[in-house]
Amino acid sequence: MTALSLRDVRKNFGATEIIRGVTLDIQPGERHCIIGPNGAGKTTLFNLISGRFPITSGEISLNNTRIDQQPPHLINRAGLSRSFQITSIFQRLSVFENLRCALLWSMGYRYSFWSALWRQKALNEKAEFLLEDLNLASRRDIPAGLLSYAEQRALEIGMTIAGGASVILLDEPTAGMSNTETDYAMALIRRVTQGKTLLMVEHDMKVVFDLADTITVLVYGQVIASGPPETVRSSRAVQEAYLGALEE
Amino acid sequence: MTRSGNGARWIWVFAVALALAVPWAFHNFQTGRDSGFVLSMLSQMGMMVILSLSYNMLLGQAGLFSLCHATFFGIGGYATVHFLNAAGAGSLPLPMEVIPLLSGLTGLGLALIFGYMATKQRATAFAMITMGIGELMATAALMFHSFFGGEGGVTTNRMIDHSLFGLTYASGMQVYYLILVWTLICAGSMYFLTQTPLGRMANATRDNYERAQFMGYDPRVVRFLQFSLSGLFAGVGGGLYAITYEIVTFDALAAPLSANALLMAYIGGTTVFGGPILGAVLITLLQSGVSLLSNSWLVYVGVLFISMVMFAPAGLSGLIIAHGPIAAAGRLRRLTVPYLRLVVPFLALVLGFVGLVELMSFLTIGAAQGKKLVLFGSAINIEATQPWLISVVCLLGGGAWLRWEARAFHRVWESLTADLKQRDRV
Question: Does B225 touch chain A (CB under 8 A)?
């Protein structure tokens, strides 16, 4: 069984083909990084997988179930959760409320307008636990929009994993962070995604080679290499298309 | 946190006590008569509180800019006239006290239908659809005479002689307390809704609907439920309207009332639950009080609205809340002098503006009505140069002075908040 599988996925925006036939299999528990130069289609690929945009052709399955025709909320309920390249949180809600919202659906509250949030002990304890786990307890009641950038990123990672999805997509979680912040964020990601399948877009090569079990290199909407870090590093095609350009 | 929570609780207790007591402050104990004016104003406040609070379920809490909120208020009103007529004729065996519930269900029913259409969209498209719905219903009200009664509206008699407590509702006092009880029920329920998963997800979809989607929620369903429930409460408000006035016309569902709902919620403040209550009370006061004094009261409401949008987008309640941290730090006193310095230029500005508006209004409408402008006990010659000159000087001088003082005030405010931030960090 594969956690996530893409079969010849294509996406056109008008006449331009952005994703040109991507086939990818990700095993449960795998830490999979997608790298590639700017404009390679990494974020677009994430948007297709998570249902933000419809695909033009091909097939995407999550735990052997087709998801490519589903809206984002159904894909999420099926067990896939994602973060965004540009921080995506609830700006005006408190940090605690952000986390609590992220827990609601998975804890079965649905659209309830008859249960009082303050009386949901298990829910509130879980949100408090997450708050501690993300090291945001001292920020509990301030609006999330007022957090520092790194804190907002940490919050978003927390919200992404809160619902207990088995497949996690992170889009450049360390973008714009200092070295210390990156180290901290990566430790956090390792910790909270334990036992989950992780698919991550990342630019920081140190992070990628540190974390990934498998690396996929995307160039102009096509996979030019995919495999363990050593294989990818030594691949001639990759060096020419991507790494070589960086080392110059 | 707990301190401000307790403070808020006391404000609620005080507000309820005030609402209970005010009619008795205007009661003439010698003749045993109530003040009809005060009672009808208070009753109007109750309905408007429900209307603006339910409107804020959309605007403030869900970020939905609806232009047809009066539709659900109006339909509740029209239906209630028919319910009361049926109850009076004996074919609807329900006591007066529960009739507003039926009004609410009518509002809910219509909101389910229109909400299904409107909430497929958001932002501008949503606003456009609701505007269309509002116009559609306003037209329908003029077309279908058997239900809406055309331009004359429909009338009823609220003395249906069926009450849980043996009340006749012949007096305005009884009606007021019925309205008050229903206003409290509605306000309480709407507050409760803000503390439920749906209420919280409405906030979430307002802030970032995509993030909400990737947490398993369909933002459309959230919007749809929120919209429908807000129609339920608006319907109750309309029912109380029908009971109070015993006549419902086109005015109860047309666009001006929808705009009024927006105005009240916005001026009161959409970011705090109680904000729209403040707005509803203030606008109703202006409506009943200033409209007696001046032909141009709508100009003042309009200018108030524009100034709020420009200078205080969080509304009156937002302005009050902004003082919270300073008050908590015990530094409120440092604002006393800067505030006092604002008073005189502000009054001059208002005097100048009101003067000009009134002079113009008396030149045209007032002349047609044969009224004379009387100020401080003496008639003012509106043809003379002097009052115009004084008004212009007050307006311009006051404006410039206020600008100057406002800058000084801003500096004090900034330094205070900067201080507080510093202290927080330590």
Answer: yes
Tell me what pLDDT residue B3 has. 43
Q: How far apart are CA A18 and CA A199, in angstroms?
A: 20
B302 with B403, same domain: the answer is no
Please report where in the chains the tokens 């509206």 appear, as a residue. Answer: B153
A vs B, Cβ pairs < 8 A, gives: 100
Q: What is the distance in angstroms between the Cα of A54 and the nearest Cα belonging to chain B? A: 15
Q: Which of B3, B192, B200, B207 to mutate to test the interface with A (most CBs of A within 10 A)?
A: B207
- Going A229 to A230 to A233 to A236, the CA torsion angle's sign is negative
Domain that holds residue B276: 14-321
Please tell me whether residues B292 and B410 are part of one structural domain: no
Of B212, B214, B221, the CB nearest to A50: B214
HSE-CB at A64 with a 13 A cutoff on CA atoms is 3
Contact B196 A82 (CB under 8 A): no
Contact A91 B207 (CB under 8 A): yes
Beta strand pairing call for A31-35 and A57-62: unpaired
Collect all residues with Cβ–Cβ distance below 8 Å to B200 and sequence separation of at least 6.
A93, A97, A100, A101, A104, A117, B194
Cβ <8 Å between A88 and B211:
yes
In sequence order, the β-bridge partners of residue B379 are B374
CB-side exposure of A46: number of CA atoms within 13 Å? 24
- Report yes or no for ipTM above 0.90: yes
Q: What pLDDT score was predicted for residue B1?
A: 35
Collect the ranges in chain B with pLDDT lower than 50.
1-4
Q: How far is CA B81 from CA B109, B142, B163, B172, B342, in A?
A: 17, 16, 17, 18, 50
Copy the structure tokens of residue B25: 């402050």
| CA atoms within 13 Å, Cβ hemisphere of B224 | 14
Q: Is residue B109 domain-shared with residue B164, that is, in the same domain?
A: yes
Which helix (H) or strand (E) covers residue B122, if one does?
none
Q: In total, how many domains does chain B have? A: 2
Using an 8 Å CB-CB cutoff, list chain A residues near B204: 90, 93, 101
